[in-house]
Structures are given as structure tokens and as C-alpha cells.
UniProtKB/TrEMBL annotation:
One Gene Ontology molecular-function label: hydrolase activity
Species of origin: Marinovum algicola
Lineage summary: Bacteria, Pseudomonadati, Pseudomonadota, Alphaproteobacteria, Rhodobacterales
UniProt keyword DNA repair, yes or no: no
Protein name: Cell Wall Hydrolase
The keyword Membrane appears for this protein: no
Keywords: Hydrolase
Length: 173
């Protein structure tokens, strides 16, 4: 059997694609995130932690997921992220165009597949780390990626009234 130039190119291309496809095999046991939830989570991380650390992005994602699990917030990722006055202005409409997008996308996938920031177990809120909040019900749990993460508690149960020192490198990846 003789191969023509065209069929030889086709065989070579198909072989190369098969090799490339096998190199990028992902863990089939992890569920594939819903595309709409992935878009919304990526947007929250991108606009709240753009050019931040992975820990900061996972922290934002953990807050989103803690809100989804709470009766006090919408029960979907997109419902939480698009809630008025909760996230960065234009979070659902502005373009995501710079070098922070790949990290936000990878971090969003990780959170939607179950990864959480280990210090933000119950945290449902955050603000920029430089901001000074003068409320007596804020219990800070972590600072990462330029954000201070916190829980709201009854004032007598607040034991950390100022954001802790920023810690990085706690999340996988």
C-alpha cells in the first residue's frame, strides 16, 4: 500500500493529535463544572482578585461557595456573584482580557470541583485588606491575595478584630 502526501499528512496529524490528547488526560473522577457556574466563578475571582495569588482566588471562591450553601444568599454560583452590590461593579459584564484570566479559570475549576481555602471554613465575606471596617461583629479568619476574609458573629464571640497577617501557599495547585 502506498500513501499519498495527503494521506501521510492526515495519518501524521491524527497520530499527533492522539498523542497530545493523551498527554492532557484529566482526572475523570472529578465532575466537570457547569459551564455557567464556571463563567460566574471565574468572573468573581478575576475581578475580586485579579493579578492576585492563587490563595486569594481560592479564598474568594470559598466565600462564594459558602454563600451558595447559606440560606441567606442565592443558591447558585451565578446568583451569588451577580447579586447587587456584593461583588465588583460590572463583574458580570466587563471583559476579562489580561494575564490574570488563566489563573482565575484554573482556580474557579478547582473550587467548583471541591477545593476550599483551609482557613475560610465559615467565612462568607471579605474586603480589601487595606480597608478598615469599624464594625463590632467582624471576626477575621484569613488574609490572602490582598483580601481580608471574615465571618459575622455576635460581638461577644469575636476574637480576632483585625485581619491576620497575609499567608500564601496554603492551597494546592
Amino acid at each position: 500500500m502506498t500513501l499519498t502526501k495527503t494521506s501521510l499528512r492526515t495519518v501524521t496529524l491524527v497520530s499527533a493529535l492522539a498523542i497530545l490528547a493523551s498527554c492532557g488526560q484529566r482526572d475523570r473522577s472529578a465532575p466537570r463544572p457547569d459551564p455557567q457556574a464556571l463563567e460566574c466563578m471565574t468572573r468573581a475571582m478575576y475581578f475580586e482578585s485579579n493579578r492576585s495569588s492563587r490563595d486569594g482566588m481560592i479564598g474568594v471562591g470559598t466565600v462564594v461557595m459558602n454563600r451558595v450553601a447559606s440560606d441567606d444568599f442565592p443558591d447558585t454560583v451565578c446568583g451569588v456573584v451577580s447579586q447587587k452590590n456584593q461583588f465588583a461593579p460590572g463583574v458580570m459584564t466587563r471583559p476579562m482580557t489580561d494575564r490574570g484570566l488563566p489563573l482565575a479559570l484554573e482556580s474557579a475549576r478547582a473550587v467548583l470541583q471541591g477545593e476550599r481555602h483551609p482557613l475560610i471554613t465559615k467565612g462568607r465575606f471579605f474586603h480589601a485588606a487595606y480597608y478598615v471596617a469599624n464594625y463590632n461583629n467582624i471576626h477575621y479568619v484569613a488574609t490572602a491575595g490582598g483580601n481580608a476574609f471574615y465571618e459575622k458573629r455576635r460581638p461577644e464571640l469575636v476574637t480576632r478584630r483585625t485581619p491576620p497577617t497575609q499567608i500564601e501557599g496554603l492551597t494546592g495547585g
